[in-house]
Prior knowledge:
It is built from 4 helices and no strands. The chain has helices at residues 2-13, 22-30, 35-144, 149-265. Helix 3 (35-144) packs antiparallel against helix 4 (149-265).
Amino acid sequence: MDFISDARNLNSDLGRHVKKCSFSSSLSGRFYKNSSLENHMASERKVAMMKEKKRQLQKALKMEDKKIKILEEKLKEKEYKRNEEIMLRLQMKRAATLLQTSVRRHRAMEMLEMMKIEAEIVRFVVLFCQAAFRGRKGRHKVNGMRRKIMQQRKENYASVRIQTLARKRIARTLLQKRYRTLVLRKEKAATRIQSIERGRSCRYRLIVETNVKIKKQNAATLIQSRFRGVRGRRIVREKRDKKKFMLQTKLENDDDSACSSRKQDR
């Protein structure tokens, strides 16, 4: 019995050097029922428990990854629907602007045709009036003043000159008025087109900026969630390592106290 107790004491003292000392390893294999075997079994149980906890944590992590993937798919679907709605709105706006431009162009063409018709009517009326006036005047002069041919010629020349000057002045004033009206209409049309184009570009820029802001916010939330998950896992791992270290130190202290008690008993 004394030999067996001595061997057990040696095995317990040399338990720290099992990997380096072949003598302690032979003692640990030869004397089976000692305190190092119980410690070994307890450590194996702890390792099994830790493996089981690791499996559970891995399962939980897989479930979290699946949830994250599902949420990402939902977010992608929402973004796709939102982009489709924005594209539909843009298409509707473009169609409305095209309709407006076509209607305005049609109205402008109708107004231009009416102006041309009115100009032709005015020209015809002026020519008819002039012809009637000239014929009446000529007949009156021929019938009333045959004797004064030279004077009539002079008067005719003067009247023709006056008429040409008056016609030139009338035509010039009419042309100036028409030119001014056309210029004003063109300027109004240009300003209207510019305002419509600027409004459309501003709306499109605003839509693009809102989409960029939404994408940035989604990316920031995703990065924050990933970072918090990594930080939480790291904290859990550190706590687990601290617990393991405390258990190991406690076991070593228990072993040291048991060895010291045995030596005192001897």
